[in-house]
Amino acid sequence: MVIISSHTFAASKGPIHYLAAGPTTGPLIVFVHGCPFIAMTWRPQLECFANLGFYVAAADTTGYGQSFNSRQVSDYSMESQVADQLELLSHLGREKAIFVGHDWGSAIIWSLAAHHPEKCLGVAALGIPYRTVELGLEKLVSTVDRELYPETKYPYGQWDYMLYYEQNPEKAEVYFAQHFERLTKLFTTRYDGLRKASITADLTKTGGFFGSQAPPDLPFEASVLDHEIFNAVVASERNNGSFGIIAYYRNGVANRAYNDPKRCANGAKLDIPCFYLDCSADLASVNSSSTNWTAEMRELCSNIFEVQLNCRHMVALEKPTETNALLARWLCEHTQAWPVDRSSGILKPGNPCTLDRNEI
């Protein structure tokens, strides 16, 4: 049985709390969560990869869980978040790691790889391709499917909610605080994947989600969260408030400047092993131009492994077995991070192995 331990260390901005498991001599995988979640949402992955011989860690990012809760918007920028991940890496005593991200966590690990590829044995992003979310609203609007979202009616497409957060941060923060439990169930339910205009496309017109009325109270069974994770996510918001949740969306201009190719290593080109899992029933994929959504990633990542699952946004919890199997296949076949040399059976961090994909 895998024991997941809880730790906190003193980082530059304040305490960073993280979960860890597995042999400390194994190759390191760092998991980075998204909005509005916490490190615990990676539990199925922490358990799986610890069992496979990896040393795994997942931190609560700024404003979540037991980590530093800031009222400074800039503390939620990609530059600040990358610095936090580098401090975690140093605290764990490593020079480099595999970084796996989801949602905003994907934006963080892509930004980290763009600026510090020497710290990455590889990067794996769930649901968010390279050079999209980390570049802010202007970039995301360029990926909108204009057949579904005519520009005259939906100038910002499904990303209109991000503009609303930028323009009305205090109102959005209050709404989240008032309805967080319902919103959490709504955000983690199984999206039907149909190609239709999203509720996120009208917030600036209607004055917020559902015209600022209470969201529907969906049955808990519709969510992909179990009660333990759901309660922990809700407790995080109750303890920290919703400022941080909205603040991640308020750094678009700063994030775009930070990730300008002129400021990135190698002009933002990535030669390290990269993994992208497309969630085919997630509104981000369903509502985006299939070409524009991944265009820069395919152009700039020379070693990219792309896969697709029929799932919605919370893929790692909705389909944990499939997600873990695909990550394991990539780690074994495309990186130098597999912990066991299959020819000898010896635990040897850094050695690649030959693993039949049918065995995963």
Automatic annotation (TrEMBL):
Keywords: Hydrolase. GO terms for molecular function: hydrolase activity. Residues 27-158 form the AB hydrolase-1 domain. InterPro entries: AB_hydrolase_1, AB_hydrolase_fold, Epox_hydrolase-like. Belongs to the AB hydrolase superfamily. Epoxide hydrolase family. This is AB hydrolase-1 domain-containing protein. It comes from Oidiodendron maius (strain Zn).
